[in-house]
Every structure is written in structure tokens, then in C-alpha cells.
Task: structure prediction
Amino acid sequence: MTKTVTFIKRNPGFAVCLILVLAVLTVAVFAPLLATYDPYEAVLADAVQAPSAEHWFGTDRMGRDLYSRVLYGARISLTAALSLVCIVMAVGTFLGILSGYFGGILDAAVMRIADMMVSFPGMVLAIAVAGILGANIRNAVIAISVVSWTKYARLARSLALKIRSRDYIAAARVTGSRTSHILWRYVLPGVLPTILITGATDIGSMMLELAGLSFLGFGAQAPTAEWGLMLNEGRAYLTAAPWLMVFPGLAIFITVAVFNLLGDSLRDVLDPGRS
Result:
């Protein structure tokens, strides 16, 4: 308990950001308890109603309660964004460490593939992949993963190149340590802090990219309660019923801002040069 209090006193910004992130996650987990209506129940007689005591965020064109749909949208959007970040972190870090540590043909092959992926505009390539695979939230995650792993691969490779020349790596080789042990015991721990900081910062941008694909029709499909799709459905009513875009947009803005702040504060905590 004393260590926790000391940590909070030393890192108040991180503690506040962590509380905000936990609040967002709590809303997503307990959405069924917090929702006032079934988010998928259409009541055409109540279509496009303004915010009121009965429907706090108003209703959409199908008469569905927007407040309930925004809450359920947190589950889908957060799950997809966190899954996406975990995938690109795992794939990019794995390939980057192998590339940087072993070098040679493996390094050349991985980096040339990464160069090829970077040469295309990321969102355009993601749209192409999502269009080929089919429009749904799972394929949107796969599509963005295909174009986003290169960032982590390059970062992990540059860190692995520095680590492999350290004296303790040479000592481990001399003492007969297996390559797998060296990678797991020495290289990965040296790479992981920077990768985690980058991943935490990228959660917000990944969520925006997923919402963008859904907005363009290449992500979540109706009647899924997903924030990007809700923005797409509400754009036709922007002047007549602005709440259809305001509340999902605010949900995206708040969530992205919270995770960006968490990434910045996590960098301060894990920065080895910090006093």
C-alpha cells in the first residue's frame, strides 16, 4: 500500500489518466447495466427524436435509443482497437527483433516488405484490403493490421540492433546461452518499454482508423452499434438532427484523448532518463 501511494505521488498524471481509462473501460464492460433501452430495438414511431428525459441522447432514424447505442459502441470500438494494437505490436515486435538480432537475409526480407507497405498510403491500402476481404469489423482490424505492423517492426529492429552489440549479450553467448533464451531474457525486455509506450499512444489513432473505415462503409455494418458507423448513419441528418453525429463524435473524441494522455504519461513513467 505504501509503495502504491508513493508511486501515485510521484506520478499523479499517470494515476489520473489511468483512472480515466478505467472509467471508459468500465462503461464498456457494464454497458448492459447502464443502457436504458435495447440498442438494437427499432421503434419507427420514435424515429429522429431530439434528446429528452426519455431518450437522453435522442433517437436515430430507426427509433433506436442513441444513448444505449453509444454505450454499446464503446464495447465494439474499444475491443476492436485494443485487438488491433495487440496484433500489430506482437507481429511487428516479433519480426523486428528477429530482423535486428539475426540480420542478413532475414533482415533484408523483412525490411523490404516493410518498405513496400510504407510506400502505399496506409488508409488507401487498408480500404483495398478491407474491400477484398469483405466489409465487417473483423476484416477492418485485419486490413489495418496489414498496413500498421511496419512501424513496430522498424522500431523493434532499431532497438534490437543496439542491444545485440552490448557486452552482456556477448557474455551470454560465451557462456553458452541459447539464442531463444537471449532473445527472451535480454532483447525483449530492452525493446518492450518503448513498444508499450508506442502501443498505448496508438490506441487512439487505431480507433480513429477503424471508425474511418466504418464511416466509409468498409468496417462495421448495420445494425452494429459502432461509433464510426453511427457517424455515417447520422451524416444525412447533420442539419436536421445533429445529435446523431455529435454524441458518437464526442465518444470518439473523449476516448481517443484519454488514451493519448495515457500514452504520454506512460512514457514519462517508463522513461529511464527520468529523475
The mean pLDDT is 87. The first helix runs from residue 2 to 10. Residues 76 and 206 are 13 Å apart (CA to CA).
